[in-house]
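User: Teach me something about this protein's shape.
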Amino acid sequence: MNAENLNNPSKPLKGDECVNCDSCSCSCTTDTRCNLHAYNWLADVPGGTNDFELVEVHFKNTRKGFYRNTSHLDLKEGDLVAVEANPGHDIGRVSMTGSLVKLQMKKANLKPDIEILRVFRKAKPADIERFEQAKAREVDTMIRSRQIAADLNLKMKIGDVEYQGDGNKAIFYYIADERVDFRQLIKVLAEVFKIRVEMKQIGARQEAGRIGGIGPCGRPLCCASWMTNFVSVATSAARYQDISLNPQKLAGQCAKLKCCINFEVDSYVETSRQLPPRDIVLETKDNAYFHFKTDMFKKEITYSTDKNIAANLVTISAERAFEVIALNKNGVRPDKLNPDSALHQAEIKAYGDIIGQDSISRFDKKKKKKSKNRNKNKAAAPENREKHEPKVGENGAEDENKPRPSGGPRRNGGGNHRRRPQIGRPEGPAHQGPRRNGPMVFRPKNDSNPS
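Assistant: First, the predicted structure itself:
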């Protein structure tokens, strides 16, 4: 928001975005973030916005206060106003009006006897110009104050400085793990900068929201984009959602539990009330079943026959679990925990993966097994031998009386090796004559040619 827009307070801020910019990452007058603090659901109710004279005014670093509109000014959300301060005046932006302010004061736990300051007027151009001059000194003041704190050996970090609208007072925001005695620091700061000094300690969440960053979800930090109020986060919220209690995953950039753990815990708590207790044991005629895990979204519970490990897991609905619990209270044990399990298995067999599309090894090439005893099997099986025996006179290629050479030595080795059985070789008296070193010749039996 530039100076022209500041001088024209008729352009209010709507929701969590400025009218004069395209996103909420602009640098507004009172805060670097245009956050949506609360939705005014009483805006359309007749008399719901103007019947209450208190207004909520927002300043830098999520600081806000409640002020009384004694002059009955026509204030709207986004108007820049000059409010009473101690001492002097301050410049802020109206963030809420109407009866909803009363609920916000109740939420802030303000005491009834607290002093409520008043709204002076709408900010004039001279007020805005003076405020801009004081705001331009914030960065230099922060750097100089850090050097002064280091010289005094104070274990603290000054994270930000906020000047009041009239420039007579400054708030120093610091972070410290231990208690710090900064009385000497206040004297030095007041003497150096010629202002009134107020020290305000902030936590790690506020510091992370001031710096900003990207969370593990890939989005900007919630505390830096839209959150203004920080609620304490407990580990019980993670237990309700069955989140692993790993400190490295549960902690955010501020080293505290993530604020987003509280976002859905109410839904989980409400759903858990519609489920049976986890310590109840379901008994059947066969086994006793213990709670193993719960699916909150499907409202299904998985039981195991062993209390410590997953054994014989059976998943049933919450309605079936309540039925079994009621039967066990009456002394009745059902036959099975899930009566539809047999039908479910039949459906899987009927409509299962027939062609193997779900198998991850369906694209692997199948290796062919080499048969070492292939030749031996062929020689041993007579039916195989008969199939491979050539027919007499078929195509004129084979003849009954045609001599055949015997098997010689193997190619890979020398010497007299055992001959391989030859297919179609004559048996019996065909082996005549002594075995020589050369190839053996089959001589057909002939009475005219004695051996």
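Now, about its shape. Residues 138-151 form the longest helix (14 residues). The chain is about 25% helix and 15% strand. If you'd like, I can walk through any region in more detail.
User: That's plenty for now, thanks!
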